[in-house]
Specification:
This is 4-coumarate--CoA ligase. GO terms for molecular function: 4-coumarate-CoA ligase activity; ATP binding; trans-cinnamate-CoA ligase activity. It is a single chain. The protein is of the alpha/beta class. Helix 1 packs parallel to helix 8, helix 7 crosses helix 8 and helix 11 packs across helix 12. Strands 4-3-12-11-13-14-15-16-17 form a 9-stranded mixed sheet, with helices on both faces. A 6-stranded antiparallel sheet has the order 1-2-18-19-21-22. A 4-stranded parallel sheet has the order 6-5-7-8, covered by helices on one side.
């Protein structure tokens, strides 16, 4: 299905010459994670992600709180019901829909309580989940169906018309599908799941997710079961055993998004209640998100920078909130500082990752969350390298260059795109991220900008994001965007602001020419 990258050395063992403060190794010119390595199952052991997730669940008493909760209606699915539905649906999909290991299932549906059940059921017998944005046009859907090689689609009545003619489809809002969830099981729960499913290997593709990568065209990234096993193992080791009944995690990212997809899987593995923003809430925008977080007393939530900014400005009651994981775009320093003043007892954890590489860095401990504008420290079992994007020379602490990453969560490759695979991986298995980054003396990663967005001006390479963050630091500026002007000789900030004041502020941060 996809070209595999060369095997990565991601066992977490630090060679000689590693600086215990920054994680930089003078011998290999790489940065190692400062976190303890997390043991993973042997790579040659047959194991699907659902088997691994349910084994983590089985290590503690079955949670009494719900596995899934609809933020709009309050409808919930208990953990026993979730396990039973997964097993029943897996059996129906194999016997009735005739799906098997390696078959690609195209999922074109909004956030619903039955979508996580569908994900786990498909993954349990080795089918490949390919979730996409239900707002795409019919032409866009047709391109992704062809790219993924999907043999069946799962949709709802409102999205089914976008599917190409001839592609078999199952409607999640049909009585037929609901009957799949209600089939009688023998009560064996997670222990019986593995016995009734195909042998799935960790190297088998679990999901196909879509990304532009380091180029503009959409590509299909193939992520093996090993990727999700590694990320869930890391989360389980770092966050410890759940405090039963207290973990309610608001899923702020769409379930088709790489972050939303993983957090959906992780919530089950860690025994958390995942509070889902179904359409009735999502349509209300950031206000609906914040109200749902308060109504359901969530302890953790994933949020984009606009949601974090809105949380500071809106009147909200979030007494139960302990942790906000923010990613997807840079968060202005002023917004982070305002959030910490408004919510002093809430950890604002910035993170960085990609569809192709999974989680690369994250803030875990409270003291790490104080490093404003950082994306946290390199995640467990992950190794990164900063290189000069022109010469390829490996750089050291504090030097800006392209970030390369390797580790057990990195994708196998792009489906059917040998050219993209060749340009994305080097001969040693390093994945090129296309991001301009640096790591400071304390091991904190800072993402400066996308390499393809650098503006070349009089021999200098100007990262737009750096200028935007300076502009956004002004209290009068709500947002800003920087781009080259039409004649490509100057950089133009697009803001509504007094130009004299802007020039004064910018001159203190960088050289401003007339």
């Amino acid at each position: 299905m996809a070209t595999s990258a060369p095997a990565a050395n991601a066992d977490g063992a630090a060679p000689g010459g590693v600086d215990g403060r920054s994680g930089f190794c003078e011998v290999t010119r790489t940065f190692r994670s400062l976190r303890p390595p997390v043991p993973l199952p042997p790579t040659d052991s047959p194991l699907s992600f659902p088997e691994f997730a349910f084994s983590l669940l089985a290590s503690s008493p079955t949670p009494a709180h719900p596995a899934l909760l609809d933020a709009a209606t309050g409808e919930a699915v208990s953990f026993p019901a979730f396990l039973s539905q997964v097993r029943a649906l897996a059996g129906a999909l194999r016997s009735v829909v005739r799906l098997g290991r390696g078959d690609v299932a195209f999922v074109l549906a909004p956030t619903r309580l039955d979508v996580p059940v569908l994900y786990f059921a498909l993954l349990s017998f080795g089918a490949v989940v390919s979730p996409v944005n239900p707002a795409l046009t019919a032409d866009e859907v047709a391109r992704l169906v062809a790219l993924s090689g999907a043999s069946v689609a799962f949709a709802v009545s409102s999205t089914a018309a976008k599917l190409p003619a001839g592609l078999p489809a199952v409607l999640l809002d049909s009585d037929h599908f609901r009957s799949f969830l209600q089939k009688q099981s023998d009560g064996r729960g997670e222990e019986g799941l593995a016995a009734d499913t195909a042998v799935v290997r960790q190297s088998d593709t679990a999901a196909i997710q879509y990304s532009s990568g380091t180029t503009g065209r959409v590509k299909a990234a193939a992520l093996p079961h090993r990727s999700f096993i590694a990320m869930a193992a890391g989360s389980h080791a770092l966050l410890g055993k759940p405090r039963r009944g207290r973990e309610r995690s608001l899923l702020g990212a769409p379930m088709f998004h790489s972050m939303g997809f993983y957090y959906t899987l992780k919530g089950v593995a860690l025994g958390h209640t995942t509070v889902m923003l179904t359409d009735a809430v999502a349509r209300r925008g950031v206000k609906g998100v914040i109200e749902a977080a308060g109504r359901w007393a969530v302890s953790e939530m994933t949020a984009s920078p606009p949601v974090v900014v809105a949380m500071v400005k809106e009147r909200c009651h979030l007494e139960a909130l302990e942790r906000v994981v923010c990613g997807g775009a840079p968060l202005p320093r002023t917004a982070a500082e305002s959030f910490r003043r408004r919510f002093p007892n809430v950890d604002l954890c910035m993170g960085y990752g990609s569809t192709e590489a999974g989680g690369i860095s994250l803030m875990i401990q409270r003291e790490e969350c104080g490093r404003i504008c950082s994306a946290g420290r390199v995640s467990e079992n992950v190794e990164v390298k900063i290189v000069d994007h022109v010469t390829g020379e490996a750089l050291s602490v504090g030097q800006k260059g392209e970030l390369l990453v390797r580790g057990p969560a990195v994708m196998a490759g792009y489906v059917g795109d040998e050219e993209a695979n060749a340009s994305s991986f080097d001969s040693e298995g390093w994945l090129r991220t296309g991001d301009l980054c640096y790591i400071d003396q304390d091991g904190f990663l800072f993402v400066v900008d996308r390499l393809k967005e650098l503006i070349k001006y009089k021999g200098y390479q100007v990262p737009p994001a750096e200028l935007e963050l300076v502009l956004q630091s002004l209290p009068e500026v709500i947002d800003a965007a920087v781009m080259p002007s039409v004649h490509l000789q100057t950089t133009t900030p697009h803001v509504l602001q007094n130009h004299a004041e802007l020039r004064s502020v910018l001159s203190s941060h960088l050289q401003v020419s007339s």
